[in-house]
Amino acid sequence: MISSVICEFNPFHNGHAYLLSRAKEESDAVICVMSGNFVQRGDLAIFDKYKRAEFALKNGADLVINLPVGWSMSSAENFAFGGISLIKSTGISNNIFFGSECGNIEKLKETADIICDENFNNLVKEALKDGVTYAAARQKVAEKHSPLASLILSEPNNTLGIEYIAAAKRLNFSPDFYTVNRIGADHNSFDGIDQYMSGTALRKLIKTNKFEQIKKYVPDNIYEDIICGQYSDINRLDTALLFKLRSLNENDLLEIPDVSEGLENRIIKHLYTCESFSDLLEKVKTKRYTMARIRRILLCAAFGITNEFLKKKPPYIHVLGCTKKGEELIKEISKKSNIPLIINAKDALKLEGFAKKTFELEEQTSGLYAMSFNPMLKSYSQYDKKLLKL
Questions:
Q1: Is the pTM of this model over 0.85?
Q2: Does residue 121 fall inside a structural domain?
Q3: Final residue before a domain boundary, out of 309, 336, 369
Q4: Under a CB-based contact definition with an 8 Å cutoff, are residues 123 and 129 in contact?
Q5: Final residue of a structural domain among 226, 249, 264
Q6: Tell me: the pLDDT tens digits for 264-320?
């Protein structure tokens, strides 16, 4: 049995190691479909995708596949669709593990059935007219179906798991889903519990150089790499991002995912008076739009990621790294996958059409990402990177 996990590992911590160990107990091998250099909350991954792939391979993963930026930096629905699509495209994995606050796969499946109903989505659109966030609107509508479903949708990992199940339905894919009860600190908590701490808290400690406080919350075999002092910071991209955004107009913004209700006008209004990218975020944010959603919108606008782009599936499988067992998985994927498999630069040069466009977008955004480090990352082209083997 070959299992898969959709992940970000931003950064990798003991909670992730626990999830992989649980998947490993039930599997012959584990594939990780991991966000690249940009993550679902609309931000830069604190460590680059190659380093995070290495962390995963050292702690239970056998193969790490890159989830391209269009899907990795998107809504929960699109993030899940991209990840599940890649798992299906491998042709070798029919078991998917994920963490959840609920810990009950049947309850999560029941909630997925509710949100997949067309009438449910129409009611959500009506609820949005009250000026609430999308998440709040869904919870309000779900309450009428089932108070438990509404409660389940209030937690971020539950929501992602439900979107995985819903995405599989959309893709006519029928894997077996397994959920592992999330343990330790809450998603946005700044407090550690036992040996577990949230990614939010760990990122804050890393960026304030409080490395001794990190040690008990990450695997010993990656601690030295985590405290290296090199991490991304979106504030270092202020000039580059504002330069790109100021070249856009209202019509350009209307093509960007999640832009609605005149938000494009609000962005343009503040774009030329803001002092920095973070200042722009604060000025554009409203009660209805979360900060994560605004960040995603602005970064997608800067990168040219449109609604039309996200109507499609990830068009290739880009392997970042593997173990010995993972090398065997690559051979199997090469036989069974229905999309191109990228192991090295030569494979990437063969891409055409949308696949080529997607890889070039990943290349361009990775170049920008490299500039967010101090000193900036050198020789950071995907064409120069070799497959990481452990």
A1: yes
A2: no
A3: 309
A4: no
A5: 226
A6: 999 999 999 999 999 999 999 888 888 999 999 999 999 999 999 999 999 999 999
